[in-house]
Amino acid sequence: MSSLYPSLQQSISNISKGKGNKGQSLFFFARVNDILLSVNTNTKDFFKDGGGWAGLGSIKFTPTGTTPDTGKPTKLIAKPLFNNISKYPILNELVLILSAPSYGLNEDPQAKTFYYLTTVGIWNSVHHNAFPDISTYKGGNLDFGNTFIEKENIHSLLPEEGDVILEGRWGNSIRFSSTTK
To answer: Per the domain annotation, does 2 fall within a domain?
Structure first.
């Protein structure tokens, strides 16, 4: 029985073979350089460039596999894809980016903007998954942002069969589970 919708793997395969989407990738990975959480941001004019209050949660990013220009801050901005569940990345975490329609569709039917999904679980840690770019990392403490402080005693819940678990970065969690032994 075949699916009504093409699989993600099939779509990626078609793109790599030059079929569909004009050879552009559906998704790519990027490193978070800044995040818009208030008027006070790490880089000048990010609040305005990110869309003001409507841009809260937006990130500045550098695609992985590119050589960062350390003299200039990145101008690439992505917004959170989902507006009903928020999981904001911290600096140096990797996120999955995609290009999708933007609010400019009425003027330009092809208008697109970048959106990010979630962080890549490189360390499979609920606390953080930061991964610095070794070519620009100068040793010492890793920059996680203005207020995030790494803690070594944050652990994920041990899952049980069929669990649905929602975990925060600081050890807080909600588990939906059965009570069978």
So the answer is: no
pTM: 0.75
* Count of residues making up the chain: 181
Same domain, 165 and 140: no
Is residue 68 in some structural domain? yes
Query: Under DSSP, is residue 167 helix (H, G, I), strand (E, B) or coil?
Result: strand
Quick check: is 3 in a domain? no
Best CA proximity match to 33, nearest among 89, 80, 85, 87: 89
Mean pLDDT of successive 10-residue stretches along the chain, which has 181 residues: 46 46 69 86 78 90 75 78 89 94 88 91 91 83 87 89 89 84 67
Q: Which two tokens stand for residue 104?
A: 């400019």
Tell me how far apart the alpha carbons of residues 40 and 49 are, in angstroms, rounded to a whole number. Answer: 13
Calculate the CA 43 to chain-centre distance. 18
Q: How many domains does the chain have?
A: 2
DSSP 53: G
Alpha-carbon span 97 to 50, nearest angstrom: 16
Kindly state whether residues 67 and 137 are assigned to the same domain: yes
Three-state DSSP class for residue 101: strand
DSSP 158: P
- Give the residue numbers spanning the domain of 89: 8-145
In this structure, are strands 77-80 and 94-101 parallel, antiparallel, or unpaired?
Answer: unpaired
Indicate if 123 and 165 belong to the same structural domain: no
| 93 shares a domain with 35 | yes
